[in-house]
Amino acid sequence: MARSYLVEVLLSYRLLFGQHPRSRSLFRKQEQNKAKCIGELDPLLSALCGEKEVGNFGGIGELLRERGVYNAETNFPHLGSRLMELQDYSTSQRPRNITEVWNDQRDPERLLTFRAIIVVGGISIGLSFLQLFVGIAQLVVSVVK
């Protein structure tokens, strides 16, 4: 019972902090700064949150391997409800500015649509200005002659 709970706690660290390359690099940067101050680096925490592959660590390495999909009831029988609350909170948050919308990767379809609109709209506006300048240039040339 205690072993399964502890493995679940370690797996939750892996899920929350070590599943994405950006979060791993952020963790490594912050943990290295912290280790410089304290003078000590926790190898298990570094492996869970800062590395793509965990290693063995006393036979639990296979349980902590990175997965694409987790089931809250199966993989997290003790902490599943709390993790679902975190997921509900995270999905209810909406981006507040253009930068957050551009970097929000929770909904890939919305992100792709937004980026396509920005690119196609930018090209359209650029071509409109080009057409305006060409029209003005033609008008100036016809008036001068």
State the gist of this model.
With 145 residues, the chain is mainly α. 70% of the residues lie in helices and 0% in strands.
In words, what does this structure look like?
The protein is mainly alpha-helical and 145 residues long. The chain has 2 domains: 1-93, no CATH class; 96-145. It is 70% helix and 0% strand. Helix 1 (2-17) crosses helix 3 (43-50). The longest helix is centred in the last third of the chain and has 37 residues, at 108-144. It is elongated and about 90 Å long. The mean pLDDT is 85.
Characteristic key phrases:
145 residues, 2 domains, elongated, mainly alpha
Average pLDDT works out at 85
- Encode the helix/strand succession as letters: HHHHHHH
- What proportion of the residues form beta strands (DSSP E)? under 5%
* Separation of the first and last Cα atoms: 93 Å
Q: How many alpha or pi helices? A: 7
